[in-house]
Amino acid sequence: MVQSLKTIANPALAEIRDIWYWDPSIGGYNPVLTEPPTILIGSEAGAQFIVYNLSDGYLELGLFISGFDPFGNSVGASVAGPVQVAPGSSFGGHLRAVTEFPGTYTCTVDIITGLYPYEIIGTLENVPVAHVVGELPPLAGHLKEPYLFDATTGERFSRLSFPVQIPFNHGVVIGVRWENDSNLAILTATFEFIDPDGVSRISGVASAELAPGQTAGAQTGEAATLDKPGLWKIHAVLESSGVLLDEQTWDAVTTKEPPAEPEFRGFDINEYTKV
To answer: 14-133 is classed in which CATH architecture?
Structure first.
């Protein structure tokens, strides 16, 4: 059974009447299932939602679908349409994601119409799409995203830009983000900026108590000066209760010395001729 549609605008325009749950046992959306399936942690969860045109004329209809884990964290979103739908006809959109935690995964679905920014004409909230069973590891987490700032220019660079070329003698601030993959735990990240000779130039340490799926981040409070040509690296370690969870090193910055200024020889006048 599809739960009642919470109407935001005109209730006579459209309605979600069918949900096909993602069934990992067949690797597809199963029209036979009438309730959310119970699946193992690590399997995919999701659903296909079917919206019907209840009006007497053609409508542009689409779906904006948001997925959430048992803790309310986003696991993704998708947009289908809008497309022209004839009276009495239907249109579908879907979303699925890999499950990481036990509990109930849900979707919230907006029925949209028109051009962007879309008008929302109805919303189906907190629709269960799967009940996930299994156990979380006692301690688990991973380093998620290193980044850096050119403190001289203010530019920010993400991991996708690494290694980035920054001029010699510019200052650099580094940072990292990390994610908890286990039950509630305090995770500590230690990170440093290493020069081409292997010397740690700046470092930072930060801790955060995180629920499953939550993330945290931190950066150094000062900048390191790029005073050596070559490759500079970011090294980070993630720990919890003395247990090493993750360790990574990224090639972050390249720099080179500016060309030497040309030297000019002095010219001495030894004699001159009067004309």
So the answer is: Distorted Sandwich (2.70)
